Amino acid sequence: MQDDWAGEFERRFREGLAGGASVSIWQHGQEIFTLHAGWQADSLVPVYSATKPASALCLLLALHDCCQSPDLPVGDVWEKFPAPHCTIAQLLSHQCGLATLAESAPLEDLEACRAAIERSKPAWLPPHHGYHPQTFGPMVDILMLELTGMRVGVFWEQRIRQPHGLDFYIGLPKCEFHRVAPLQAPRIQRGYMQQDAFYRKYFDTDSAVYRAFHSITGYSTPREMSTPAAWQCASPAKGGVASARGLAQFYQLVMSHAVPDEVREWLATPQCCGWDETLQQESAFTCGAMCEPARLFPGGGFGHAGAGGCHAFGSPETGLSFAYVMNRMELGNLPGARVLKLLELLA
After folding, report:
1. What are the boundaries of each domain within the chain?
2. Contact between residue 129 and residue 95 where contact means Cβ atoms under 8 Å apart
3. What pLDDT, on the 0 to 100 scale, is given for residue 1?
């Protein structure tokens, strides 16, 4: 049975494959399946928003260290935050209405991002939500600075990545540059943009959806993300560089005794669901992660997609974790058809 499953998985994995890709599946602390094609097994790639749960874990651990919880109002930590009564849990689950800013700011300048956020007005308040693709990064970094005096990338390296040997970096050292595969831009199908509600608004420069992806500028395109500067930027929203094994092992770490039970619950428990003002479809979030499709994992799962098609998640009920990374990008911000085909074999 295991051989039959592995054969079917390999067939689905290789269907339509272009460029390099890797998959890694773990259960109860052990890797039970791995596959790669088009590159090396340990190739690294920028994983865009699949970084967000790792960054959220840093903030949640910092709160736990301070004997606080994500129910703490953001204004108690960040005095000039424009939605001071929103909790950190609501910020991490995209409910604070600051996906777009009154003025743009460069990702490399955290103080400029802070000022732009503080001068902005929330577009909605809880229980409404809308994905914060870019502003999530500086907001989490600023909260980390206020709580610990460290930014996410430093905390991640010292507290999580290095002690546990994860092949998942938020701020890649120069000695690992040679392992990074350059990204290849997605191929746009004729008529796709006109048929998709999200992309119609994404390409409308007057829309809130467009501004959500452009209020924080820098390191967005495949060309920009294929540079050492992007690999070292350590953005909590999209600066992660990882192998499939590193991403999957991260979720095993979260589900292990290495992470306090309360912190695991915060990262895994849904905080909001319903219409997403940014993604223009239904979505659900925990404190920093996306909820996995309920039709595939009725017992619950938490993870995150990354722009272009990478995806990783953990399922506490089964002890499974899964990661898929690639460098031939696809359109979309949620798990695409290719990943969903692979996930169906795990359900």
Report:
1. 2-344
2. yes
3. 41
Task: Using the CB atoms, write b or e for 1-33: b if 16+ within 10 Å.
Answer: eeeeeeeebeeebeeeeebbbbbbbbbeeeeeb
Sequence letter at residue 7: G
How far is the C-alpha of 61 from the C-alpha of 70, rounded, in Å? 10
What pLDDT was estimated at residue 189? Answer: 65
Mean pLDDT of 255-273: 96
Name the CATH superfamily housing domain 2-344.
Answer: DD-peptidase/beta-lactamase superfamily (3.40.710.10)
Which residue is listed with tokens 């390999």? Answer: 10
Residue with tokens 């979720």: 251
* 197 pLDDT higher than 90: no
Predicted pLDDT at 191: 56
* Phi and psi angles of residue 30, each rounded to the nearest 5 degrees, phi first: -125, 140
**Burial of 224 from C-beta contacts in 10 A (0-12 / 13-18 / 19+):** middle
> Is-cis flag, bond preceding 133, omega within 30?
no
